[in-house]
């Protein structure tokens, strides 16, 4: 798999720290289609609609119990040269998230799954970084990077 790293000109990070790179995992496509994005604690989740062949936000019966008001999830259906998938932007950050990402200033995260054949590459990462003491939103750059993912078939 290859992809292009898009980032603001003032950011110069190694590939291993590029966005979104907190955690990456490879799963089967059926798991991605069945699970989507569902924290179990939000009034919304991301699900695949077989009829329209696209990802969509669906309501759940969960009452949000966060310290701050709930912020709606932002969904992007993503198409790369040889895969389809989704990215969801989540701004409902809590202390657990800040500890997990080791970022006390964490503002929002991305969760994505890109599906190719029977496999899905999924991952998560922070979408904000401080530059010159100002928060810089990396959403645009993360989405452009995901659109460039190219799965390669191993030689036989």
Question: Assembly state here?
Answer: single chain
Q: What gross morphology would you assign? A: globular
Characterize the main sheet.
Answer: 5 strands, antiparallel
| Sequence of secondary-structure elements | EHEEEEHEEEEH
Structure characterization notes:
The chain has one domain. The protein starts with 22 loop residues before the first strand and ends in a 9-residue tail after the last helix. It has a 5-stranded antiparallel beta sheet with strand order 1-7-6-5-4. Strands 2-3 form a two-stranded antiparallel ribbon. The protein has a two-stranded antiparallel ribbon with strand order 8-9. It is 14% helix and 37% strand. With 156 residues, it is mainly beta. The chain has 3 helices and 9 strands.
Summarize the structure.
The protein is mostly beta strands and 156 residues long. The protein has helices at 29-35, 95-100, 139-147; strands spanning 23-28, 44-49, 54-59, 74-80, 83-90, 109-116, 119-126, 128-131, 134-137. It has one domain.
List keywords for this structure.
37% strand; five-stranded antiparallel beta sheet; two-stranded antiparallel sheet; mainly beta; 14% helix; 3 helices; single chain
Helix-strand layout with pairing:
Layout: E1 23-28, H1 29-35, E2 44-49, E3 54-59, E4 74-80, E5 83-90, H2 95-100, E6 109-116, E7 119-126, E8 128-131, E9 134-137, H3 139-147
Antiparallel strand pairs: 1-7, 2-3, 4-5, 5-6, 6-7, 8-9
């Amino acid at each position: 798999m290859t992809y292009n790293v898009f980032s603001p000109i003032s950011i110069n990070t190694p590939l291993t720290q590029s966005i979104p790179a907190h955690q990456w995992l490879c799963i089967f496509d059926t798991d991605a289609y069945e699970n989507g994005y569902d924290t179990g604690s939000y009034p919304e989740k991301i699900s695949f609609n077989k009829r329209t062949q696209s990802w969509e936000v669906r309501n759940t019966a969960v009452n949000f119990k966060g310290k701050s008001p709930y912020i709606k999830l932002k969904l992007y259906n993503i198409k790369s040269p040889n895969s389809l998938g989704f990215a969801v932007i989540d701004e409902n950050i809590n202390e657990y998230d800040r500890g997990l990402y080791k970022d006390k200033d964490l503002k929002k995260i991305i969760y994505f799954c890109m599906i190719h054949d029977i496999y899905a590459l999924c991952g998560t990462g922070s979408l904000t970084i401080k530059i010159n003491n100002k928060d810089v939103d990396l959403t645009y750059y993360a989405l452009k990077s995901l659109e460039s993912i190219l799965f390669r078939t191993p030689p036989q």
